[in-house]
């Protein structure tokens, strides 16, 4: 929560539950801000993706579930 992340692969979630809120993204940009891998559950706290993105400074999200 409330982190600044830049020049990385972003947050990668696989088979875990994390609460993302208030994060922001610096320069150079991340490959993707939040990646949800195949083992990650659907539903809260990740869905709806639009809410997840907007609560994290318009994060780019790669949903691979």
Could you characterize the architecture of this molecule?
There is one protein chain. The protein has 65 residues and is mainly β. The protein has one domain (1-65). Helices cover 9% and strands 20% of the residues. The chain has a three-stranded parallel β-sheet, with no helix packed on it. It has a two-stranded parallel ribbon with strand order 1-3. It is globular and about 30 Å long.
Key traits:
mainly beta; three-stranded parallel beta sheet; 20% strand; 65 residues; 9% helix
- CA(first)-CA(last) distance: 23 Å
Low-confidence runs: none
Beta strands, count: 5
* Total number of distinct structural domains: 1
Spatial order of the strands forming the largest sheet: 2-4-5
Mean pLDDT: 95
Question: Approximately how much beta-strand content do the residues carry?
Answer: 15-25%
Radius of gyration: 11 Å
Order of helices and strands: EEEEHE
Biggest sheet layout = 3 strands, parallel
Can you give the helix content as a percent range? under 10%
Oligomeric state, counting identical vs distinct chains? single chain
Structural class: mainly beta
**Number of DSSP helices?**
1
Estimate the global geometry from the Cα principal axes.
Answer: globular
């Amino acid at each position: 929560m409330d982190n600044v992340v830049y020049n990385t692969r972003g947050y990668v979630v696989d088979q875990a539950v994390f609460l993302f809120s208030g994060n922001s993204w610096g320069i150079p940009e991340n490959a993707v801000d939040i990646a949800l891998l195949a083992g990650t559950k659907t539903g809260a706290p990740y869905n709806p993706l639009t809410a997840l993105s907007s609560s994290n400074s318009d994060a780019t999200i790669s949903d691979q579930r």
